[in-house]
Amino acid sequence: MMFRRSLAGGAFLALVAFSAQAHFQILFTEDLSRVRGKPTTLTMAFSHPVYGGPDMDMGEPLAFYVLSQRGDEGEVKRTDLAEFLEKVTWSGIKNESVGYRATLPRNLTRSMGDYVFVLEAAPYYEAEEDKYIQQFTRTILNVGGVPGNWAEVQNLPAEIQPLSKPYANWTGGLFRGIVLSEGKPVPFAEIEIEYLNYDIDESKPGFEPGAHVELPHPSYGNLSLRAGADGEFSVALPRAGWWGICALDVGPVKTHEGKPLSQDAVLWLEAKDVGAAD
């Protein structure tokens, strides 16, 4: 994917890519697979992560909560996190925008098990397409290697059910999932995959300069595929880092304030390189 281009060629690719960028609700926290619990910061921005922007202003989230479970047989606990939301200025590579951040005390992510963070975003008006976009985003982290509710369905309007652990993927591995709407599979759902191409500085908050990869062609910006007849899909993860998966327009509500509405499902994954034994 590291492919050198002339300045003119790079500018052309940027212009072509601008009109084909996918919208992704970022819900980021450092390290999805943790040995022990610690205070957790979650950073939220509405962006085009492979290009570092442009970034769009977020409205106040409609809901933000975590579902936690210790062990396969443990009780699932839901904790509302709205009180921790803080409006921030997100600094993208191309522009600034309104984002949100939540700094959680250690006791909320202290126990071993899974933590499923759910962000229900306010609809965003996309003027270029004259429509609204609303994304239901999930980021799942694990503490201590004890599995929990990572594969459970929340019956969201738009949702991606993991069939592989989102927080435990080797680079080059295969991730599997099912696209759902209100808990039911969506046949042949349109799916986009995008690489988080810039490091995130949570203290800023925003993207750090310097892309990890240079795209050889605009079509590599957001990779596209269709789910099968049962809503199931598979995607390879060729590089370490964060990958966003977005199922487009799968929610049941199709209009908002008299205009088309796309209710999307977003799930974030983390892949890590295989390391040598000490």
What would your notes on this structure say?
By secondary structure, the protein is mainly beta. The chain has one helix and 22 strands. The chain has one helix at 7-18, and strands at residues 24-28, 33-34, 40-47, 63-69, 77-80, 85-91, 96-104, 113-120, 124-126, 131-143, 159-162, 169-170, 174-181, 184-185, 190-195, 200-201, 206-207, 223-226, 232-236, 241-247, 255-256, 259-272. Strands 2, 4, 5, 8, 9, 10, 12, 15, 18, 20, 21 and 22 form a twelve-stranded mixed beta sheet that branches. It has a four-stranded antiparallel beta sheet with strand order 1-3-7-6, with no helix packed on it. Strand 13 (174-181) and strand 14 (184-185) form a beta hairpin.
What's the topology here?
Elements: H1 7-18, E1 24-28, E2 33-34, E3 40-47, E4 63-69, E5 77-80, E6 85-91, E7 96-104, E8 113-120, E9 124-126, E10 131-143, E11 159-162, E12 169-170, E13 174-181, E14 184-185, E15 190-195, E16 200-201, E17 206-207, E18 223-226, E19 232-236, E20 241-247, E21 255-256, E22 259-272
Parallel strand pairs: 2-10, 10-22, 12-22
Antiparallel strand pairs: 1-3, 3-7, 4-5, 4-8, 6-7, 8-10, 9-10, 11-13, 13-14, 13-19, 15-18, 15-20, 16-17, 20-22, 21-22
Q: What class would the helix/strand composition place it in? A: mainly beta
Estimate the strand proportion.
Answer: 35-45%
What percentage of residues falls in helices of 4 or more residues? under 10%
Number of strand segments = 22
Shape: globular
SSE succession: HEEEEEEEEEEEEEEEEEEEEEE
Assembly type of the chains comes to: single chain
Largest sheet, in brief, is: 12 strands, mixed
pLDDT average, as an integer?
90
- Helix tally equals 1
C-alpha Rg, in Å?
18 Å
Distance between the termini: 30 Å
| Unreliable stretches covering 5 or more consecutive residues | 1-20
